[in-house]
Recover the amino acids of this structure.
């Protein structure tokens, strides 16, 4: 029997293993995962009865194959409106608490609510042409923004950078208000120093024009309209967080005879003929296993080090210099927020309905706030009496913030929330937890401009299939990562050598995340 080794048990790695064990009896599949849990950055972390989602993972896709897999794993038979919600077609919106009549439902319908925090005001995102938005912007700022947008329409900039990309679609005024500071906070680089490829991949169809078209379609009641992902109003979400999906998938892989070995980081990939020897560590011991095929979702820099001299020095230099952005997420359990629900969206305990709040204010380090109560009330031990927050800070692994003691990190998070008016001075902090995620976001600068040199060399290994976000150094959505795995398995089973279709995932797709979802709307 042939041996397939899958490196990494995140969405891409698990999907590759799941597809292969279900489509062929000729392959023995082994997944090697460096961490102790499956799911990668899509795992769910349990903290004293509360659950953390490391980034907020919306279950939404326009790929029917991905939707069918989600349904097969988690959705009960006959779940209402499941296809509509997952495929992005409008249906009934919800944002309430536990529903006794839906105790058996595993995928919950959630309303997508996001706002931007800017100069102590909250703005809807995507930007709406509502009186509330205009009032908070002010008459003169609104006029300046409109004129700036018209100027951008008339005089398009050559898109040499992400800054050019944003200005062409939003105008300079809105760019400076809602994108410039947040983007620099996220990436640690000014948008003028980031490739426009990032915007082309992640923002794509979103612009003021797309927002206005979406508003017009709603006013006119137009049906079956094309909807940009950034404007999608609802999504599905596993009852107990995204980890529930990957834990279920891992269980199914094992039932089909596949193996998943946790705590087993891969340290070597040694090509031999059409296959390779895989070296990994387990309980302090270095072990070796043969692979006729390798599905790698490990970061390209780590894969290059594992391949060693098998990779030409020029390609290896590109890989080891690829940049990443790392994330520290602080889970904070509080008795209440200072924010009031001034919307018409009902929520459990009258908490503000936001899933995410993006912190555009450059006066604080905090980049994004998740309100877990609104992702799923089942993530919170007592959703009626407490609010469970996820506070995301973007940094570089090994810098001062990354190495900061946990209590000092929590104290800074609380101070910033109070300064923003999100928490009251006398709010009770009931619990706190910190998670550090390295290589969370592949970045589009430095040696990224030469990544094609690396890709061409990796494609020369007949046994190797690079999949997933870090496996391709692409800022993929979760479903895109799954699609790379599905296509890789198809290439293996058909014997197709050309890897072009694999690397084209999230290039030819018609939808992507929003500019403000750049911190990992996964």
């Amino acid at each position: 029997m042939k041996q397939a080794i899958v490196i990494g048990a995140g969405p891409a790695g698990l999907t590759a293993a799941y597809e292969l064990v279900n489509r062929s009896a000729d392959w023995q599949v082994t997944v090697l995962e460096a961490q102790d849990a499956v799911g990668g950055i899509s795992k769910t972390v349990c903290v004293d009865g509360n659950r953390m989602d490391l980034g907020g993972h919306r279950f939404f896709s326009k790929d029917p194959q991905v939707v069918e897999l989600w349904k097969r794993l988690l959705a009960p038979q006959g779940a209402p409106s499941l296809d509509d919600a997952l495929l992005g077609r409008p249906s009934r919106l919800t944002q309430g608490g536990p529903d006794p009549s839906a105790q058996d439902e595993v995928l919950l319908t959630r309303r997508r609510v996001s706002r931007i925090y800017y100069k102590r005001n909250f703005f809807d995102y995507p930007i709406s042409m509502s009186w509330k938005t205009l009032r908070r912007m002010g008459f003169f700022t609104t006029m300046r923004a409109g004129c700036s947008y018209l100027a951008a329409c008339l005089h398009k900039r050559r898109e040499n950078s992400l800054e050019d990309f944003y200005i062409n679609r939003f105008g300079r005024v809105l760019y400076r208000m809602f994108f410039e500071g947040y983007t620099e906070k996220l990436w640690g680089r000014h948008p003028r120093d980031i490739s426009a490829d990032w915007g082309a991949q992640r923002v794509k169809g979103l612009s003021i024009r797309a927002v206005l078209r979406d508003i017009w379609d709603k006013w006119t009641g137009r049906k079956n309209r094309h909807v940009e992902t950034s404007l999608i109003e609802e999504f599905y979400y596993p009852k107990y967080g995204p980890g529930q999906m990957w834990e279920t998938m891992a269980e199914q892989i094992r039932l089909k005879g596949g193996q998943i070995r946790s705590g087993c980081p891969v340290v070597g990939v040694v090509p031999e003929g059409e296959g390779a020897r895989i070296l990994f560590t387990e309980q302090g011991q270095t072990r070796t296993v043969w692979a006729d095929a390798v599905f790698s979702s490990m970061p390209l820099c780590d894969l290059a080090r594992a391949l060693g001299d098998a990779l030409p020095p020029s390609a290896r230099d590109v890989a080891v210099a690829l940049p990443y952005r790392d994330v520290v997420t602080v889970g904070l359990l509080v008795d209440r927020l200072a924010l009031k629900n001034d919307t018409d969206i009902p929520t459990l305990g009258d908490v503000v309905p936001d899933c995410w709040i993006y912190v555009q204010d450059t006066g604080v380090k905090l980049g994004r706030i998740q309100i877990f109560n609104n992702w799923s009330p089942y993530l919170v031990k007592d959703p009626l009496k407490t609010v469970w927050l996820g506070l995301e800070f973007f940094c570089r692994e090994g810098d001062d913030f990354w190495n900061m003691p946990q209590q000092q990190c929590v104290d800074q998070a609380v101070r910033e929330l109070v300064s923003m008016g999100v928490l009251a001075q006398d709010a009770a902090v009931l619990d706190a937890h910190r998670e550090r995620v390295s290589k969370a976001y592949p970045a589009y600068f430095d040696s990224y401009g030469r990544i094609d040199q690396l890709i061409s060399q990796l494609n020369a290994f007949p046994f190797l299939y690079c999949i997933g976000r870090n496996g391709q150094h692409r800022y993929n959505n979760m479903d895109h990562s799954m699609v790379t795995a599905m296509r890789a398995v198809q290439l293996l089973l058909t014997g197709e050598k050309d890897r072009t279709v694999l690397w084209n995932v999230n290039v030819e797709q018609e939808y992507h995340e929003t500019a403000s979802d750049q911190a990992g709307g996964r």
